[in-house]
Amino acid sequence: MIYRVARALRIDLGDYVYHCLNRANGRMRIFDGAADYRDFEYLLNEMRESFDMRILAYVVMPNHWHLLAYPKEDGDLSGSFKWLGTSHATRHHARKETVGNGHLYQGRYKSFLVEEDHHLLTVLKYIERNPVRAGLVQRPEDWRWGSAYRRIHGTPQEQRLLAELPVDLPRDYVSWLNTPEPSEELSIMRNAVNKGVSYGDVILPEHGGY
Question: In this predicted model, what pLDDT tens digit does every residue of 1-27 receive, in sequence order?
């Protein structure tokens, strides 16, 4: 199977899926315990409600996070993620009493377009398997701070954070999720993240970039 990675555009259009991520400044650990993770998930829910942001998948790791976001309107992506980063940094510094100690994140969040077909499922799996690749758990659904846990073990209220996907999950979702990605697929996925390019052949309207 051949995957194509297209040169990225800086865009903020509604009804496109984006893989968004950010890392801590200096890759320091910013999530130390359950309270830190819960506070970030609280902000995710606030973002969902305040910006009507559809969150398709996410994972919060000790020094970074990934989200698969599906904004409805033009401009929603930058507005909502700017709010998320600012709100999280403010609350984190207040809780840790580190106000004035520098930036929490290495920079603004990164976002990459994702084609709404099997590419979307590939990115979702990449996100949800992140804790397994990092050696934190043996199964994705065992990591409490991610969408795999919410899909499989979450209460109805917890599952409300996740929006309906524009594609169907595999019927054997748990088995599929617990099957490691082929090395070629994982390499291409990492390349897209490292180079900041879209994943799949995303067709944009004219003047969609900036």
Answer: 434 444 444 679 999 999 999 999 887
